[in-house]
């Protein structure tokens, strides 16, 4: 036996151990998510929007909509926000130095005029060029500012907001009529301790949208968006729910999250030095309250839905995924003292450690494992028999997990069509042939971008919501 | 080879389980959607019929004859959704129809269902039947092990004006896991004028600070001026927090805030001195709330102190003071104009900003 044989064998052992550990964690997450959903399912179905609308318990919310080059969808999106079912809210659209006609289309379509509003710079952001409003839309405020990125725009929104809670919503996303009422529930139950609540993100591609509302739910017709659908279901209904239950939720999606304004200001608002601002603010909140030994809670609400456009081309998806990876690594690097640190409770010992092991080390090991296969076979460390057996096991296990996530989907929503469930299942099988490997590659790319300190978001393409007639 | 065989068998097992899940999910969803479609159609026709018979109760036997056994469930759901949205005479007619159709009895039976969500739903519907039998059943439900059922029963009893004692309500709601819920706050607010003496007693008793806050908030929303002396007494008792633990200090601040919020709603001139004192409170949240309270009261006596708050170290206090001055009319606005030209940069900035926001020249 050569030294190379031992080295390859050692690496194979590491790869197998990590993959097995990850598989066990996925299984544990599935069980925890199931228990969590079962526990809250009846409460969720009993939530009475009418009572929340009329009883006076719903706290006022400022909806912050950062917009950068969103002329295609922004007017429809804003109209949809203004029509939300909620007793008291304001919509603050922040035009973050768009190069297209985002500002102009809003001013023209909604008849806005320059106004004055007194505000205080609680958190840092770039210069505000003007504020716009209209007596026709007293709930709407349009902020025009110098481009500074999404975090910067959100910070401007925080400063201009006057309500105790703010809800960050992406400009390319749509909320269901009752989404705000649903995401507000944890704040009604625990108004003192609750600092942030995340809602579920679903893919709008394929759905029929009328007047800024999803009126008919359907799966995307394009394969790439379809493959992302099952991914989103797994991510939100298994991982997010499980982390929420364990008190180790590290991400509240930037597309839809509700925050206590004072808490966000205490941590300095959104950070400018990371592209994963959604993860960063959540980690900062955890760190802030844990270090001060103050009681706090964060929760994920599975039945509060925000609809978002999924990328339909490989190029855009690649940019999105590598950016997510980069953002996550920036946050983990910034708060590395929390990793494996019991001082931060489940956030440090479970949440941060998981992300470190399986989202940073994981893709590297996975790719190394793929490269090692031919070498291992050549050296006789792994027999083709073993390789095929292992491949069969990981494949069936992955599909099994996806199938289980559909069970959870059925517990949350009753409207998914049977044929869509079958289609989702099919995509769960197909994603193993190329899509997953591409994802791993893009994550590696994100790691490389992090190491080379690349900044910026990259362009995202927006399309109108309505289906062409 | 045994190891490989095992792996293959596990893979086969997983594949089988996946197929079973897929089949189960698709078939179940198909049946579920069929049922949902059937329910929706039936619910629509039932609603049309019900609305017709509400106006013509003499044809009720004919309506009952058209019903299928499973319609009772749908009708309860329908009326549970309808009742909170209708008022007065019409609500009475709906309740009468429900009673005649045996839906009240169905809800009473469900109040002891082993499933807690059914008990909670029934408690919510029963809140529209002002009858001794129902009140007794709801009283029993207040001891339910599930907090959601207790909350619904309490909400139903307050709607019926049948809460026997605030102390009982406190014992069953305010000391359990839902004590911080805004839902409990809403139940206390709904107690009505009949509960004012008891709520006042709560302020003076040795219950927890949180319960006192619930009572103070409820007294403010009920809007009975009898509560003012008790609220003022509570405010003065908590005005000094020296020598207290961190938790006690926080509770004291929360109580002062709750009193100020209640006084903002009650708008009673007897509160003026307390509001003036609160404008100098060491805690900024109390000062900001007091500024709002002062504007509600509409007394010019607060103007000098509000003007001083325009230079407060905390922006939200300055903002609320400026808003209060603006709302106090000409005298307040003159004070704002003066502040806009004053030497204090902080006061000038907030006063100028607010005047501009309100469309006034500086």
Overview in brief:
The complex is a heterodimer of chains A (469) and B (362). Chain A has 469 residues and is of the alpha/beta class. Chain A has 14 helices and twelve strands.
Architecture overview:
The complex is a heterodimer of chains A (469) and B (362). Chain A is α/β, with parallel strands linked by helices and 469 residues long. Chain A folds into two domains: 1-46 and 193-255 and 264-455, no CATH class; 59-189, Spore Coat Polysaccharide Biosynthesis Protein SpsA, Chain A. Helices cover 53% and strands 16% of the residues of chain A. Chain A has helices at residues 3-46, 49-54, 74-82, 102-110, 150-160, 179-189, 223-246, 261-266, 277-291, 314-334, 345-379, 384-412, 418-430, 435-451; strands at 61-67, 89-96, 113-115, 128-134, 137-145, 165-169, 173-175, 194-203, 208-210, 213-216, 256-260, 297-308. In chain A, strands 3-4-5-2-1-6-11-8-12-7 form a ten-stranded mixed beta sheet, sandwiched between helices. Chain A has a two-stranded antiparallel ribbon with strand order 9-10. In chain A, helix 10 packs across helix 14. The radius of gyration of chain A is 23 Å and the shape is globular. Chain A starts with a helix and ends in an 18-residue tail after the last helix. The radius of gyration of chain B is 29 Å and the shape is extended.
């Amino acid at each position: 036996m050569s030294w190379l044989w031992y080295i390859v064998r050692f690496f194979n052992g590491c790869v197998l151990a990590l993959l097995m550990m990850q598989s066990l964690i996925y299984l544990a997450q599935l069980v925890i998510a199931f228990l969590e959903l079962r526990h809250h399912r009846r409460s969720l179905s009993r939530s009475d929007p009418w009572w929340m609308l009329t009883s006076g318990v719903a706290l006022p919310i400022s909806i912050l909509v950062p917009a950068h080059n969103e002329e295609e969808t922004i007017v429809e999106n804003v109209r949809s926000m203004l029509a939300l079912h909620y007793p008291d809210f304001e919509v603050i659209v922040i035009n973050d130095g768009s190069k297209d006609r985002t500002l102009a289309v809003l001013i023209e379509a909604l008849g806005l005029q320059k106004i004055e509003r007194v505000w205080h710079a609680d958190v840092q952001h770039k210069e505000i060029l003007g504020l716009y409003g209209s007596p026709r839309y007293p709930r709407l405020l349009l902020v025009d500012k110098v481009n500074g990125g999404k975090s910067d725009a959100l910070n401007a929104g925080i400063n201009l907001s006057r309500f105790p809670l703010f809800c960050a919503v992406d400009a390319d996303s749509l909320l269901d009529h009752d989404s705000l009422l649903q995401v507000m529930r944890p704040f009604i139950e625990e108004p003192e301790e609750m600092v942030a609540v995340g809602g579920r993100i679903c893919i709008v591609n394929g759905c029929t949208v009328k007047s800024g509302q999803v009126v008919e739910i359907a799966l995307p017709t394009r394969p790439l968006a379809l493959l992302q659908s099952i991914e989103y279901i797994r991510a939100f209904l298994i991982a997010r729910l499980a982390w929420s239950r364990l008190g180790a939720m590290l991400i509240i999606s930037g597309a839809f999250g509700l925050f206590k304004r004072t808490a966000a200001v205490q941590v300095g608002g959104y950070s400018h030095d990371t592209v994963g601002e959604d993860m960063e603010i959540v980690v900062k909140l955890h760190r802030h309250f844990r270090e001060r030994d103050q009681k706090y809670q964060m929760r994920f609400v599975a039945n509060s839905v925000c609809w978002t456009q999924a990328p339909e081309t490989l190029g855009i998806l690649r940019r999105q995924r590598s950016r997510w990876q980069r953002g996550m690594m920036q946050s983990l690097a910034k708060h590395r003292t929390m990793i494996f640190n019991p001082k931060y409770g489940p956030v440090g010992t479970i949440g941060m450690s998981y992300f470190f092991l399986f989202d940073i080390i994981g893709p590297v090991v996975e790719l190394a494992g793929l490269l090692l296969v031919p070498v291992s076979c050549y050296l006789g460390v792994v027999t083709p028999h073993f390789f095929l057996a292992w491949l069969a096991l990981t494949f069936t296990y992955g599909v099994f997990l996806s199938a289980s996530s559909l069970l959870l989907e059925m517990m949350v929503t009753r409207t998914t069509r049977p044929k869509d469930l079958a289609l989702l299942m099919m995509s769960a099988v197909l994603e193993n042939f190329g899509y997953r490997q591409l994802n791993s590659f893009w994550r590696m790319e994100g790691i490389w971008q992090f190491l080379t300190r690349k900044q910026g978001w990259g362009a995202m393409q927006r399309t109108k919501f309505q289906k062409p007639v | 080879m045994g190891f490989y065989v095992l792996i293959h068998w596990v893979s086969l097992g997983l594949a089988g389980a996946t197929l079973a899940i897929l089949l189960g999910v698709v078939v179940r969803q198909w049946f579920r959607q069929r049922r949902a479609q059937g329910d929706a159609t039936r619910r629509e026709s039932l609603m049309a019929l019900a609305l017709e018979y509400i106006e013509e109760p003499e044809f009720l036997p004919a309506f009952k004859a058209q019903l299928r056994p499973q319609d009772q469930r749908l009708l309860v759901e329908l009326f549970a959704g309808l009742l909170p949205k209708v008022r007065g005479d019409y609500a009475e007619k709906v309740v009468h129809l429900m009673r005649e159709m045996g839906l009240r009895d169905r809800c009473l039976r469900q109040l002891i269902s082993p499933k807690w969500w059914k008990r909670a739903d029934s408690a919510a519907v029963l809140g529209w039947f002002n009858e001794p039998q129902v009140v007794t059943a709801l009283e029993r439900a207040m001891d339910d092990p599930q907090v959601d059922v207790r909350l619904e029963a309490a909400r139903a009893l307050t709607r019926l004006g049948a809460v026997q004692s605030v102390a009982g309500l406190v014992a069953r709601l305010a000391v359990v896991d839902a004590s911080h819920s805004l839902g409990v706050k809403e139940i206390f607010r709904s107690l009505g004028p009949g509960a004012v003496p008891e709520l006042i007693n709560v302020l003076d008793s040795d219950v927890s600070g949180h319960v006192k806050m619930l009572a103070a908030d409820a007294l403010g929303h009920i809007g009975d001026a009898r509560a003012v002396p008790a609220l003022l007494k509570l405010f003065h008792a908590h005005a000094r927090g020296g020598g207290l633990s961190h938790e006690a200090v926080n509770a004291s601040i929360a109580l002062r805030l709750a009193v100020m919020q209640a006084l903002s709603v009650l708008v009673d001139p007897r509160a003026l001195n307390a509001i003036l004192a609160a404008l100098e409170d060491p805690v900024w949240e109390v000062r900001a709330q007091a500024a709002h309270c002062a504007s509600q009261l509409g007394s010019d006596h607060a103007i000098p102190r509000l003007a001083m708050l325009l230079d407060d170290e905390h922006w939200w206090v300055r903002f609320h003071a400026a808003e209060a001055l603006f709302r106090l009319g000409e005298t307040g606005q003159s004070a704002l104009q003066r502040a806009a030209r004053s030497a204090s940069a902080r006061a000038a900035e907030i006063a100028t900003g607010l005047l501009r926001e309100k469309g006034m020249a500086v």
